[in-house]
Specification:
28% helix, 6 strands, 105 residues, Alpha-Beta Plaits, alpha+beta, single chain, 3 helices
Length: 105
């Protein structure tokens, strides 16, 4: 069952974030299709980055923790608070599945 990693950044870390953005993206890319989705969390102005969220395909909580801890943003001290939560698929692209998986059938 995948894990949702939600990370909120310290304010005023824009320069630090820009300095490691390329390394962060390379790190995410290294997970290939195991990284189901990832993107920035935005403030109400829809421009200011306040963190990020990633959905990692793993059944191992420790692996989800390592995923976040080894991220260049985390290593650079940009992250203020991180929450790691198991995520179960129920609704996808307009379809509900009571089993929580295999929405193709």
């Amino acid at each position: 069952m995948p894990y949702l990693v939600t990370a909120y950044d310290h304010p005023e870390k824009d320069l630090e974030r820009e300095g490691v953005r390329h390394a962060h993206r390379d790190y995410l890319r290294s997970f290939g299709t195991r990284l189901i989705a990832s993107g920035a969390l935005l403030d109400q102005d829809a421009k200011t980055i306040i963190g990020g969220a990633s959905l990692l395909d793993t059944d191992d909580f420790a692996e989800a923790q390592r995923f976040e801890a080894e991220d260049p943003y985390a290593k650079a001290g940009i992250r203020a608070h991180v929450q790691i939560t198991q995520w179960r698929l129920r609704w996808w692209l307009g379809s509900f599945n009571s089993q929580g998986h295999d929405l193709s059938g």
